[in-house]
Structure formats: C-alpha cells, structure tokens
Write a structure and sequence with these properties.
The chain is an all-alpha fold and 169 residues long. 85% of the residues lie in helices and 0% in strands. Helix 3 packs antiparallel against helix 4.
Length: 169
C-alpha cells in the first residue's frame, strides 16, 4: 500500500526536476541578455581608450580628440558597410539566376571591390588622423600598436588564440 504513494512522490520529483531543467535551458538559450551584449561593447570601447592611454601615452586632451575622431569615423563607416552588404547580397542573388552572364557577375564583384577599397581608404585616413594627434615620441608606439592590431586582424582566430588572448587581458 505504501508503494503507490512512493511512486507518486518519485514521479512528482522527476517532473519538477524536468521542468526546472527546461526552464534553465530556455533562460540561457532563448532569452536575450542585453546587459551582457552592452557590457561587451562597452568593454571594447574602454579597451581601445585604455590602449591609447597606456600603450601610446595619450593624455586626457588627446583622448578627447581621439574619441571625437573615432565617433566620426564610425558614423561615416556605417552607411559604407550597409552599401557593401547590399552589393554582396546582389552578387549572391545571381546564384539563383541561371542566365546570369559572366559580365554581370564581374560587374557585381567589381562593385564590391570598389566599396571595399573605399572602406579601406576611409579606415587608413582615420588612422592617419589619429596619428596626427600623437607627439613625435608617441608616433613609434602608435605605429607599432596599429601594426600589431592589423596583423591580428589578418589571422583567423582559433580557439587556442582566443583563450590566450583572454588570459593576457
């Protein structure tokens, strides 16, 4: 007689644990955590400012000028990134067109190349403006930092690299 009551209790405990696990899983997989995303973006902003202060030696006035240049730079890049995305979308839409000519494909890829060139020149000019903020003593440090940064950007990030990068912070 004690057995059905015990089975009911076990079933109740199992169902409660199952529901708890599903709730925890749903929380981590489906619910957005904007504070984490914002914190990551904010950390990157602080990180570059810290690098300019610590690695290059920027003072508060230079940091203020740098922040202004950086904001202007990103404001000018946003529409360029949008145009680049649209150009790439147009190229890959040609995949579904069996009659897409080679000249049409070349034209679409040439447009992407031109937009990439404009982005690269915009970025180069931004770094050149930031370099102009540097004193002659700071310029070699800035040049070295920029070279290291672009070398890192050119490499594919592997799992071990990410772990090493996080540990070095």
């Amino acid at each position: 007689m004690n057995n059905p009551s015990r089975n009911r209790n076990l079933v109740f405990i199992i169902v409660a644990l199952l529901l708890t696990n599903i709730a925890v899983l749903a929380y981590f997989l489906w619910i957005k955590h904007p504070e984490k995303a914002d914190r990551g973006q904010e950390n990157r902003k602080i990180d570059i400012i810290d690098r300019m202060r610590d690695s290059v030696g920027f003072n508060d006035e230079q940091l203020g000028q740098f922040k202004k240049l950086k904001d202007e730079h990103w404001a000018s890049l946003k529409p360029m990134f949008d145009e680049m995305r649209n150009a790439k979308d147009n190229l890959f839409k040609l995949l579904s067109d069996p009659n897409a000519s080679d000249s049409k494909i070349d034209s679409a890829s040439d447009l992407i190349a031109a937009k990439q060139k404009a982005l690269d020149l915009q970025t180069f000019n931004h770094f050149k403006k930031v370099r102009a903020l540097c004193t002659p003593e700071q310029q070699p440090k800035y040049d070295s930092m920029v070279q290291r940064m672009f070398r890192k950007m050119g490499k594919p990030m592997r799992r071990n690299d990410k772990e090493k990068d996080e540990k070095s912070k």
